[in-house]
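Example record

The entry below shows one chain as it appears in the dataset: sequence first, then C-alpha cells.
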Amino acid sequence: MQQGPLPPVDSPMAMTDPTGQPTCDPLPARVGVTGPAAQEPLGVVAVGPAGADRRAVLAALVGLDPVMLTVPAGSWLVVRHAKVPTRAAFVPGYRQPHSYGADRDAAGPALARPPRRVELSVPEPLLRHFTLIDTPDTGTLGVAGARVLLDAVGRAGALLFVISADQAFTAPELNLLAEVAAAPVEVVFAVTPGAAGWAPQADRTTTRDSGSTSPAEDRPAEVDSTAVTVEAHRAALLAAVPSLAGARWFPVGGADPADLRRALVGWSAGEGLHRASNDPPMLPGEHDRVTALADPGGWSERLDRQTRSCAQRIRQHLALELANIHLRAVQEIVFGVGCAGLPDLLDREMAALSLLATAQCDHAVRRILADAATQVLGAPPAEGVRRRIATAVQYGLADHRQGQDLDPVLLITSTAGVAKLTGVEAIDAVAGYPTAYRDEVLPPVAVALSGGCWQQWRTPGNDDHSAARRWSQRALREVELELSREVSRRFEVIRLSLGGVLSDAIEHGILLA
C-alpha cells in the first residue's frame, strides 16, 4: 500500500503514537533568535555590509589598530578582556588553537582552512562590560550564515549594525533585522561616512524669505548633512521594519565614538542586572526531599515510545534540511562562484545544521525528562528538581555509552567521507561564537569541513561542476548517515540513563534525597 507524506514537524499527528499517547513535542524548525541564558556573558555582535568600515568602528571602540582586527574571510572575531594580550585561531579538526601573535606585524599561521573564529584578548576596560564579536559581511552570509548570526545575537544580547552614508539596506539585511526586532535584543545602528563624505555639496539647500531685504538673510542655510543622512537611513529602515523605531542611531566618523561607547556601556549595565535577576541563588526544589510514586503506571513504556519517536522526528527533519542544503550547494556550483565557493557555503551550512541538531536534541531531551519525571512524581517537577534529575542523568550517561563518546566532531573529508574527532576542545574549535554555559544533558552536535576539502576545491583549474555536484551529494549523504546514527545513539543512552534514575527512585520511594 502506498504511504502518504510524513506529517510536518508541528503537526499534532507527529506528537502521538497509534494509541493516541503523546510521543514527541514539535521541534524547532530552524535556528533563530532566542533569549539569552542568565549565565551567558554579555556580548555585542557587529554586522554590516562590506565597505561600511565596520572594522575601523570596532577598532575605535576598543582603542586598537584596525589591522589587529583582521581575520580570514568567513571567520568570526571574538574580542575579550584579558590582562595579557593574545590572539588565537580556532580551526575545526584541531583540539588546540593556533597562536596568531598579539602584535600587528605578527603573521597568521599557515592553515589548511580558515578558522571558525579568531579570539583576541586585550586589556581594554570597555571589554569588562561585554565581549565584542565581529562577523562576516552581510553579503556573504547566505541563508545558513544568517541563521548562525541570529543564534549568536540572541545569546549575546545586542546587535551593532554598521552601514555607510552611501549604502542602502538590502532585502536580506532587512529580513535579518526584522527577525532580530521580534526578539528581546538591543539593536544599535552606526552610520559611517561614504566615499564622498556624509553628503555631496548638491544636497545643500538655500532658503530666503521673499520679503527679506537683509543680505545676511539671503545667505544659504547650511543643512546638517550628517543628521540628514542618518535620518534618511532610519526612515528607509522603518518603512520596512517599523518595530525598530526605538533603536538608537549614531554617526561615527574619524573621531572617538564616545556616544556609541556610552550607549553600549549603558545597555550592558541594565542587561547585566536583568540577567542577574533571572538567575536566583537557589532554585525552587533545589534542596528539597523529593518522593516518587509507588506505582506510576507504564512510565517505562512511555519513555521508550518518546525516545524512539523523538529520535525519528529529528532524523527526518535533519534529512530534509540536508536535502535543502544540497540544492543550495548545486545552485552555488552552477550559478554562483562555482567550485571555489563550495567549501565556504558547505561550512556555513554545516555550522547552521549543527546548531539546529543541537537545539532539537536539547528541546526533545528536556521534554522527555519533564514528562517522565511528572509521571513518576505525580506532578510537574520544579526547576531545581529538573536540574538535579538532569545532573543525575548526565552522571549515568558514562555507564551507557558502550565505549563510545557522545561529543564527536564530524569532519567532511576530501573523499566525501566523514571523519570523527572527539573531545570538548574539538567541539569548542568548531564554534564561531562559543557558548560559555550549557545547562543541557547532551553535548552539542558539531559538523564542519576538513582542511582537505578547502584545498581540493580551491585548487586552480579544479572547476569540474559535475564532479563537484557528485562529491557534494556523497558528502551530504555521509553526513546524514552519521547524524542519524549519532541521534539514535544519543536518545538510546538517554533512555537507559533516565530509566535507571527513575527505576531507583521508584524502588526506594525517593527520587532525590
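Notes for this example: The longest strand covers residues 157-164. Residues 1-15, 200-213 have pLDDT under 50 and may be disordered.
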